[in-house]
Design goal:
alpha+beta; Alpha-Beta Plaits; Dna Ligase, domain 1; five-stranded mixed beta sheet
Length: about 425
């Protein structure tokens, strides 16, 4: 979700100049919270938090009414309620969000085949080839927003620009429910007036480093020698920021974008010290990670473990595989092996599994001898049951028991590949 609370929103007039533009960045506004309002209109206009009901839960999304009190994603629900005591907390319903996301993405693909999903609720579109059919990029953006609202009941914000970087900035500044068009001739003046933190890739530390040299606006970057920027941010980072500040961003919309990692983690209702229980939770998380790998046609070369103790000390461990995998048993074996190599010194608050160094499944002939053949059949049966009856219909007997987490959503949730 966006960090803004909707204040300082900037939108374009209906007849805005879209000369030289071709890229749209579409971002659903407070997506999870908006879906909850769609399903329960009584929540409209109220400060709403989507997250674990219990005090240890984490905010997955918040309505703009809640954001104005300082509520942000990834914040603890307990802290969020201290900032906004009258907020309404609802538990997340990921399958519902995924269903609406598929509907929204289908609208995008109906307009242009050049769609690059960034997450469950945002995407880049290259509409340069759709002009003859739908009109100019600005007209396409207006039509797209109207279709999303009419067909789903949800609102989105759209940035239109000549490059991905500027389109992303524009959509953020138009939130909520806005459209901001930055023509190619206006790009330089648009960027110059922005704070350096608005540039893609300038986080708090980089912004602080630049501001320490008196570089607060993009115009200050433009007025500074390139070497100053590179010394401040490093050679590679400085060069990238220098290019973006000058409006240079040659990246194309990637329709076959490969995810960098897939993970699931959970914060427990109560700290857990029992290692048998923790291994069971790792097995369950590993099965969910592997299912998402298979849904995405991906395999992982590296499996990582994340563990956070009761005192918030966080450990991460990773192990690379001889061969990439999408098999739940194999992912779980590696995750549990990493866990068993640790000396558990106190109760555990959070645990997670992540698949990294992803590549597309080969789809070629299976090796003569497949050690995971039996487990592949198990996974296939689980996948079939999940598609027929829902995500929780069938699971391992070893992971049955009362729910221990606080309704967290998948980390960086993405959708399965379209059919």
């Amino acid at each position: 979700m966006g960090r803004g609370d909707g204040t300082g929103r900037t939108v374009s007039p209906e007849d805005a100049d879209d000369t030289g533009t071709r890229i749209l960045h579409v971002d659903m506004d407070a997506f999870y919270a908006s879906v909850e309002v769609l399903d329960d209109p009584a929540l409209a206009g109220k400060p709403l938090i989507v997250g674990g009901m219990e005090g240890r839960g984490v905010v997955s999304s918040a309505s703009y009414e809640a954001r104005r009190y300082g509520v942000r994603s990834a914040m603890g629900v307990a802290q969020a309620l201290r900032l906004c005591p009258h907020a309404i907390v609802v538990t997340p319903h990921f399958e519902r969000y995924a269903a609406l996301s598929r509907q929204v993405m289908a609208i995008f693909h109906d307009i242009t085949p050049l769609v690059e999903p960034l997450s469950i609720d945002e995407a880049f579109l290259d509409v340069s080839g759709a002009r003859r059919l739908w009109g100019s990029p600005g007209q396409i953006a207006q039509m797209l927003r109207a279709r999303v609202l009419a067909e789903t009941g949800l609102v989105c914000s759209v940035g239109v620009a000549a490059t991905k970087h500027v389109a992303k900035i524009a959509s953020t500044r138009s939130k909520p429910n806005g459209l901001l068009i930055v023509s190619e001739p206006d790009t330089a003046s648009f960027l110059a007036a922005l704070p350096v933190s608005a540039l893609w890739g300038v986080g708090p530390k980089a912004a602080e480093a630049l501001e320490g040299r008196g570089i607060r606006l993009v115009s200050d970057i433009l007025a500074s020698p390139r070497g100053v920027i590179e010394r401040t941010l490093g050679r590679a980072g400085g060069e990238r920021i220098w290019q973006l500040a000058h409006g240079v961003d040659p990246r194309a919309v990637e329709t076959d974008r490969v995810e960098k990692s897939i993970g699931h983690e959970e914060t427990f209702l109560h700290d857990i010290a029992d290692t048998t229980t923790l291994r069971s939770e790792l097995r369950r998380l590993s099965d969910r990670v592997a299912a998402r790998l298979r849904d995405g046609g991906l395999q992982a070369r590296t499996i990582a473990l994340k563990l956070r103790y009761a005192d918030f000390t966080t450990l991460t461990r990773a192990s690379s595989l001889a061969e990439p995998t999408d098999v739940g048993q194999r992912v779980g074996d590696v995750a549990i092996g990493l866990f068993d190599a640790l000396e558990i010194t106190q109760p555990v608050r959070l645990i997670g599994v992540r698949a990294e160094k992803l590549s597309g499944s080969s789809g070629g002939a299976m090796p003569l001898w497949d050690d995971d053949a039996e487990w592949r059949r198990v996974d296939a049966a689980l996948d079939d049951a999940r598609q027929r009856f829902g995500g929780g219909a069938v699971t391992r007997a070893s992971v049955l028991g009362p729910r221990r987490d606080v309704n967290a959503l998948p980390t960086n949730p993405r959708l399965p590949r379209p059919d």
